[in-house]
Amino acid sequence: MTARLLVKTTEGVRERPPTELSELRGTPAWLDVASPDDAEMALIADELGLHPLAVEDARSRHERPKADAYDGYYFITFSAADSQSPGAVKTQVFSIFAFTDVIVTVRDGEWTARAEVEKRWREGRLKSAGMLLHALLDTTVDSYFPIVDDYGERADVLEGLILQDTNVQDVYDHVVRVTDEIDTLRDLVSNVVDANLAAVSNRLNEVMKVLTAVATILLVMTVVTSFFGQNFTAFIPYDRAEIFWGSIAFTLLAAGLLALYFRRKGWL
């Protein structure tokens, strides 16, 4: 395993031994782990308190791009693509454990976008762990475009060959294959966008649940106070101290019971 801990300090980014990670919590840091085995992943999991399912997914290299929320961190699986020569595309799946102060990347190989982000991190252009996470995902997605453009140019060339020589029947098959690969890349980018929209929607739902619970509690209190705010005493002696203190007690008790109920339901 090759593990490097890049810590942001007041003097700049410094490389520290990975074993010091627990001592440096609270400081923006990037732990980059390459080709770990099961025992090494277990040590990282114990150090950071990672969920066993997230560790299992990080060890797998056949996961689709996704983002899962765990207690205190996010687990993200993403795909990187590099074109080392015209027409040759190398892809790999890497994993990210995103904490508020630490970003952990787990990978098997290298890709151009990761190296570019590391340079920016070392130069101090990324101020926080959140900006580091965004840079990793954004730069990796941006690296797709030259590959897609290359396939687009190759498709144009094949189209010209088809128009010039109708006897080359297998050229059409190549065009279809190129188109299918471009569609696959488009779906991959679309999945990333959908995952972001889903995360935003989930956060909005959590906010709405809290607001609804608070509004319900205030509604009960409003009903009680408005009832005892009536101007006639034909049926209830509103001027009695017992009625006043009873209404106050009922209001507070109802608010407390509703708050406890919503708390148990996970809405507060």
What does this structure look like?
The protein is an alpha+beta fold. The chain is built from seven helices and seven strands, in the order βββααββββααααα. A seven-stranded mixed beta sheet has the order 2-1-3-7-6-5-4, with helices on both faces. A hairpin with a 2-residue loop joins β4 and β5. α5 packs across α6. The mean pLDDT is 82.
Helix segment tally: 7
Poorly predicted spans: none
- Characterize the largest beta sheet: strand count, sense, and whether it forms a barrel: 7 strands, mixed
DSSP, total strands: 7
Rg of Cα set = 29 Å
Blueprint of the fold:
Elements: E1 2-9, E2 12-16, E3 29-34, H1 38-48, H2 52-59, E4 66-70, E5 73-85, E6 88-98, E7 102-107, H3 112-122, H4 129-142, H5 144-164, H6 170-227, H7 241-265
Parallel strand pairs: 3-7
Antiparallel strand pairs: 1-2, 1-3, 4-5, 5-6, 6-7
Helix pairs in contact: 3-4, 5-6, 6-7
